[in-house]
């Protein structure tokens, strides 16, 4: 038996080795679903399936990276990088680069993040002469996003009686027009928002039979983790892709479905068996993660939900400790208690910082934990909060880079046209947009022919200089890498100098952030696509931009750092920690006050609680405070109803007191009617969350850099200095070849090598395992 199959239980092994046909695994938390998926990919490859033919969709980029790493370990080759493995968004963005032209987009299309999308919405609302107070970008965005994820296009939206009625009742009758104008505007800007990455992929497969055929043929094996949280758009895409070969394997747990507000529906799980000819269903019943006490508590909690798929879950582990239920006087006392408990557990039980996780319902709760951990000198990392790439100076810099790649990108253009100040004021910008709209061309095209549109001579000169500058940057694209261009842009625009000259504390911080951005671009060009093979890969500005747009905040932080991890329960899905604290178990906070009006909402909160509890391996602490500041008001809280759902013999109760004195203030898509799909997907907006940036967050990119710069452990290269053109070499993966060219800098030499079997490749000598023969 292959080594990787050892240690799997019989059901897991069956799931791994049943490679042909549709397969569904619905099983409880910690039963090895993700492990099965990873091992299955390794097994497919060991059986000779080409990595290029495997598509694996995960919920986070981090999960994808972990899977690749584990597969690399099992198979010991660099083949893992040829897998199409990642989140729906990142995989589809990669595919779209090559296919966007079919849908009328430039292949250099921009990906708009939520901020960009909201800014377009603001413009659209203004242009339609609607009240911006009434049609707030957030509300419009959520509604449009809901429609897109339900595969309801603008035309269908406008034509659907029920949707229109709903908007009337909500007193926002013009949402359909806003949606249509927004979609048009994004298209004109050559931009897709996050949801577009899904729906455009769907349109591609639905409307272009040759594209459908191509990808059906390519992705012979499809695997999906966390299937319970796929939304209708994702579901339809999988169905299309899987239809030809039917080798679709999905794993999920209906008890952990926690994204109905984003349009996910567990109907997908129930429907799966009808979608394919011969579906094999495998159960996994052994939990390998948690102690029996934790598992029993979780099982009892979820029993309060109606209509769960019946599952058994047992564990062989020793009973373990009771769950600690701790009441505190205030939220600050709660933070203090958790910090003390971490210290005590580290001392007595030899846990490390990284063994602890603090989970909460909303980001705002992180403050009190953060304060007490800092006071106690315990290092921590917060996942969530303001991401590095959301900071103004970083967004400005990136807007320049985006505009260079895609001059039609109006959002980017507006952002930097007068930054640093160059005499192109708001009136000029408004005029340019007006001309663009009147003539159905882009704002950039107006600027290019500014003389024709009759701008005043002073303004005209400023515009011409700006256009010439951007064009000169643009001309660097074919020959220069991302770093060279970015560095040049920073210098030529005077942008970096301006930040450098600002000596206020914030100014210094902004300058440092920009330097950090440049460092990270440098790192991008100096890191091979595979550390094992040292292969260079595409280092163009376009590739760099795509990569960072799809980074989430969590991806920028090192999950292996020896720090306590803090995150919302939503973000903790799929993860596990030896010791878990779940904070704020209070009515109106958890369950959230916004989610207790219907049974469906409450059941989703309960599933969230189930997810939280099942992250714990050895010890679980549940805490709640009598009083807490919420939006600046001191509130008194009842304990959460969920507490009573845990069998009391599994719980040790205690009180950690303290006084109040410590308080601080602080178009015919999909199936079913459009309305039905929308109704399933439009649920309450996410609660308003306050965010805090951690001290550690600022250093996050630095941490990542250290990791990326560490060469592989068994790194035995030939000394690059001895290497010369014409020499014969052997590469660990690509075999024998001849050195054709040597280039790159002294500290990062790059060789072009013509391999006998694998053709010509650029290899980074700092990474490559190369022997002179
Ligand atoms: P979740 O529902 O939370 O995503 P999951 O079902 O995906 O959980 P995994 O994360 O794959 O579960 O596995 C949980 C833990 O159990 C992991 O640490 C994994 O390595 C371990 N595990 C799974 N199967 C086995 C096994 N056969 N032997 C030993 N450990 C196992
Ligand atoms: Mg999992």
From TrEMBL:
Q: Which GO terms describe its cellular component?
A: cytosol; DNA helicase complex
Catalysed reaction per UniProt?
Answer: Couples ATP hydrolysis with the unwinding of duplex DNA by translocating in the 3'-5' direction; ATP + H2O = ADP + phosphate + H(+)
> Which SUPFAM superfamilies does the entry mention?
P-loop containing nucleoside triphosphate hydrolases (SSF52540)
Keywords of the record, alphabetical order, are: ATP-binding, DNA-binding, Helicase, Hydrolase, Isomerase, Nucleotide-binding
UvrD-like helicase ATP-binding domain residues: 6-291
Annotated ranges, domain UvrD-like helicase C-terminal: 292-574
UniProt-listed InterPro entries = DExx_box_DNA_helicase_dom_sf (IPR013986), DNA_helicase_UvrD-like_C (IPR014017), DNA_helicase_UvrD/REP (IPR000212), P-loop_NTPase (IPR027417), UvrD-like_ATP-bd (IPR014016)
Per the UniProt entry, the Enzyme Commission number(s) are 5.6.2.4
Sites binding ATP sit at 27-34
Leader peptide range in chain numbering = none
Residues of the region (Disordered) are 654-686
Spell out the PROSITE patterns in the cross-references. Answer: UVRD_HELICASE_ATP_BIND, UVRD_HELICASE_CTER
In its UniProt record, which GO terms are filed under biological process? Answer: recombinational repair
Which EC class does it fall in?
isomerase
Would I find Disulfide bond among this entry's keywords? no
Q: Which GO terms describe its molecular function?
A: 3'-5' DNA helicase activity; ATP binding; ATP hydrolysis activity; DNA binding
What family does this chain come from, according to its entry? Belongs to the helicase family. UvrD subfamily.
Q: Under which name does UniProt file this protein?
A: DNA 3'-5' helicase
Question: Per the UniProt entry, what species is this protein from, by scientific name?
Answer: Cnuella takakiae
């Amino acid at each position: 038996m292959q080594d990787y199959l050892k240690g799997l239980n019989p059901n897991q092994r069956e799931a791994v080795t049943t490679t042909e046909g549709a397969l569904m695994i619905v099983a409880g938390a910690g039963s090895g679903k993700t492990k099965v998926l990873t091992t299955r990919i390794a097994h497919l490859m060991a059986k000779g399936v080409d990595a290029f033919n495997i598509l694996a969709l995960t919920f986070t980029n981090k999960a994808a990276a972990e899977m690749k790493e584990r597969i690399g370990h099992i198979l010991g080759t660099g083949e893992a990088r040829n897998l199409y493995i990642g989140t729906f968004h990142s995989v589809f963005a990669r595919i779209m680069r090559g296919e966007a032209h079919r849908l009328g987009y430039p292949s250099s299309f921009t990906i708009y993040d939520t901020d960009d999308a909201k800014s377009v919405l603001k413009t659209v609302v203004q242009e339609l002469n609607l009240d911006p107070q009434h049609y707030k970008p957030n509300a419009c965005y959520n509604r449009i996003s809901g429609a897109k994820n339900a595969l309801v296009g603008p035309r269908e939206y406008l034509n659907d009686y029920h949707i229109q009625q709903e908007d009337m009742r909500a007193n926002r009758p013009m949402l359909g027009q806003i949606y249509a104008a927004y979609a048009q505007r994004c298209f004109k800007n050559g931009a897709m928002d996050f949801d577009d990455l899904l729906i455009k992929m769907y349109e591609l497969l639905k409307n272009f039979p040759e594209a459908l055929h191509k990808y059906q043929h390519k992705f012979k094996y499809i695997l999906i983790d966390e299937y319970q949280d796929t939304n209708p758009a994702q579901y339809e895409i999988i169905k299309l892709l899987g239809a030809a070969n039917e080798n679709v394997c999905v794993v999920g747990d209906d008890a952990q479905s926690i994204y109905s507000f984003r349009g996910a529906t567990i109907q997908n799980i129930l429907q799966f068996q009808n979608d394919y000819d011969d579906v094999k269903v495998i159960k996994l019943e052994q939990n390998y993660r948690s102690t029996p006490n934790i598992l029993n508590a979780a099982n009892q909690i979820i029993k309060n939900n109606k209509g769960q798929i019946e599952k058994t879950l047992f564990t062989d582990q020793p009973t373990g400790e009771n769950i600690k239920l701790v009441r505190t006087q205030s939220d600050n006392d709660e933070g203090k208690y958790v910090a003390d408990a971490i210290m005590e557990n580290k001392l007595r039980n030899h846990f490390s910082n990284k063994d602890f996780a603090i989970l909460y319902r909303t980001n705002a709760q992180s403050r009190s934990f953060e304060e007490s951990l800092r006071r106690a000198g315990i290092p921590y990392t917060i996942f969530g909060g303001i991401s590095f790439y959301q900071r103004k100076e970083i967004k400005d810099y990136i807007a320049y880079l985006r505009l260079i790649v895609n001059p039609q990108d109006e959002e980017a253009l507006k952002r930097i046209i007068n930054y640093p100040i160059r005499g192109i004021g708001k009136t000029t910008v408004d005029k340019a947009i007006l001309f663009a709209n009147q003539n159905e061309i882009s704002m950039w095209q107006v600027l290019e022919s500014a003389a024709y549109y009759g701008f005043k001579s002073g303004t005209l000169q400023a515009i011409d200089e700006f256009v010439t500058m951007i064009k000169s940057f643009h001309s660097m694209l074919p020959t220069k890498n991302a770093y060279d261009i970015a560095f040049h842009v920073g210098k030529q625009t005077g942008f970096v100098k301006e930040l450098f000259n600002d000596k206020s504390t914030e100014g210094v911080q902004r300058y440092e952030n920009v330097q950090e951005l440049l460092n990270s671009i440098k790192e991008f060009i100096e890191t091979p696509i595979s550390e094992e093979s040292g292969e260079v890969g595409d280092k163009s500005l376009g590739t760099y931009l795509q990569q960072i747009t799809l980074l989430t905040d969590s991806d920028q932080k090192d999950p292996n750092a020896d720090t306590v991890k803090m995150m919302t329960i939503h973000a903790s899905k799929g993860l596990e920690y030896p010791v878990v604290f779940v904070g704020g178990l209070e009515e109106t906070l958890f369950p959230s006050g916004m989610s207790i009006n219907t049974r469906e909402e409450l059941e989703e909160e309960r599933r969230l609680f189930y997810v939280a509890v099942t992250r714990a391996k050895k010890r679980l602490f549940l805490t709640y405070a009598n009083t807490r500041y919420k939006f600046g008001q001191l509130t008194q809280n009842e304990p959460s109803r969920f507490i009573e759902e845990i069998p009391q013999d599994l719980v040790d109760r205690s009180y950690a007191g303290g006084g109040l004195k410590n308080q601080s203030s602080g178009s015919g898509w999909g199936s079913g009617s459009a309305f039905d799909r929308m109704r399933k997907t439009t649920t309450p907006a996410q609660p308003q969350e306050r965010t805090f940036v951690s001290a550690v967050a600022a250093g996050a990119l630095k941490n990542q850099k250290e990791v990326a710069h560490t060469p592989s452990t068994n790194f035995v290269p030939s000394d690059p200095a001895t290497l010369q053109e014409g020499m014969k070499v052997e590469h660990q993966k690509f075999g024998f070849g001849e050195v054709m060219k040597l280039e790159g800098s002294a500290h990062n030499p790059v060789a072009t090598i013509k391999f006998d079997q694998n053709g010509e490749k650029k290899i980074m000598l700092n990474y490559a395992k190369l022997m002179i023969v």
